[in-house]
Amino acid sequence: xxxxxxxxxxxxxxxxxxxxxxxxxVSLIGAxxxxxxxxxxxxxxxxxxxTYMGGFVPxxxxxxxxxxxxxDQGFFADEGLEVDIQHAGFTGSHKSLxxxxxxxxTTLPASEMLEVRANSGAPYVAVMLFGQRxxxxxxxxNSSGITSPADFAGRNVGYKGIVQSEFHAMLxxxxxxxxxxxxxxxxxxxxxxxEQQVDVYPxxxxxxxxxxxxxLNQEITVFEAADYGVPTLGVVYLVTEEFLQDETxxxxxxxxxxxxxxxxxxxVNDPAAAIESTEKFLAEDPPPDLxxxxxxxxxxxxxxxxxxxxxxGVGWFTQQQFRALADVLFDYGALxxxxxxxxxxxxxxxxDIHR
Length: 355
Prior knowledge:
The chain is an alpha/beta fold. The chain has helices at about 5-15, 15-35, 60-70, 75-80, 95, 110-120, 165-170, 190-195, 210-215, 240-245, 245-270, 270-280, 290-305, 305-310, 320-330, 340-345, 350-355; strands at about 50-55, 80-85, 105-110, 125-130, 135-140, 155-160, 180-185, 200-205, 220-225, 235-240. The chain is built from 17 helices and ten strands. The strands form three sheets. Strands 2-1-3-10-4 form a five-stranded mixed sheet. The chain has a three-stranded antiparallel sheet with strand order 8-5-9. The chain has a two-stranded parallel sheet with strand order 6-7. The longest helix is centred in the C-terminal third of the chain and has 23 residues, at about 245-270.
């Protein structure tokens, strides 16, 4: 706002007419600002409650960080929303709790969301996408001589519980199948790669490469299915069809997504500040490794941005992306039934936000 001294200078140098014009402009700007309010203002005086459950332990995965930042920076409060932040830990309970209506929104990899919906009929609906490419990669020691997935033939290859459909598709792109190698269930311990119990170790891209290189002092190469033309997607926020049938639920979801989109953008623009907010939600014993947490966040931010999000806004997704992923899952047996993609996703909230 111009000061009185500034107005006096305007009168002196340009005359009363110029000053009056400036006053009119300032008044108009103030009126527009008062009418529109802050972009984060929900426009409703009622405070709503919502329960969020992250699908794992507290850490710097971007879908979790968006919630931590939104809470710590006051973005939820700006929306008139109180969020009960919970975590499923290692239990996987979030998948059933959301169906029981005990939580409102949770996280799940897009591939798993599609599998559960198709195979069990769970009415999951994705409303926001974080990873524009998948969360899985396949690490090898640089000393192994493996320079591409074509070199997996004849090797010992690890998997975690199940062999991912995306892995099958990556092999097919090199005219290979799992029959061309020895598959071993290796669990979640990357030491098996260091000890050369396997030649190829499946990694979660956001954390295990850092563990292998920084903590275990290994030089590695990581292969991703997406680099070989395989459709992959990362984690989504999901609700249920029943949840979306209630207008109050739709209102609180709109507020939640406005706040987390804002937090998403905040984290992209200032990841160091996002880590400061995140640290308040991490376990204190043992103390968090903030270098590792920053690696997680930086990796997930990189994978969450694409030409699609730059054109339309963070969190964006298309029906074509989910259809292509579902086709891969169906082709390699992860989906027991075809899936109705149209009902499995809802982009309307993001469309309103980014409009």
